[in-house]
Amino acid sequence: MKLNSQVADLLLSADSKALATFGPNNINVVPVSTIRIVDGGIWLMNYFFNKTAENILSNPYVSLVGWRGFDGYQIKGHVLYITEGPKFNDAKKWVEENLKDRVLKGLLILSPEEIYDISPNST
Q1: What is the pTM of this model?
Q2: I want to staple 116 with a disulfide (CB 3.0 to 4.6 A). Which of 45, 74, 95, 96 is the partner?
Q3: pLDDT digit string (tens) for 64-79?
Q4: Measured between alpha carbons, how far is residue 111 from residues 24, 54, 98 in Å?
Q5: What φ, ψ does residue 85 adopt, rounded to 5°?
Q6: Which residues pair with 37 in a beta bridge?
Q7: What is the side-by-side strand order in the sheet with 61-68?
Q8: Which helix (H) or strand (E) segment is 5 a member of?
Q9: Cβ distance 12 to 73 under 8 Å?
Q10: What are the CA-CA distances from residue 37 to residues 32, 44, 62, 67, 105 (Å)?
Q11: Model confidence pLDDT, tens digit, residues 14-34
Q12: How far apart are CA 29 and CA 17, in angstroms?
């Protein structure tokens, strides 16, 4: 499923973002600080995920929510967790250039499968 520009723009400019996982560590929800949208996938940078990474390795189905004010979207889908290779290296280079105080531990690539408008006035 492809993200439309309205969903992509809101995610990139969201006041807050949270990622929910489920696995050996039960339900886990964490704030997400850095995302990029690359080739239709949502790239989430892992700087601090511990339980989240363990859950994803066991169960790659996740839910990402981003909101700005009262407008927001929930995106559900499968995530690929990588710690090496060309995409990881691209993400690592981007982090080194843009967020010099962060160290990338892993890259989550979320492939959207379901998108829900969570705004109060959505139908």
Answers
A1: 0.93
A2: 74
A3: 999 999 999 999 999 9
A4: 22, 19, 24
A5: 105, 175
A6: 42
A7: 26-31, 16-23, 61-68, 71-82, 106-117, 41-46, 35-38
A8: helix 5-13
A9: no
A10: 14, 9, 16, 16, 18
A11: 999 999 999 998 999 999 999
A12: 10
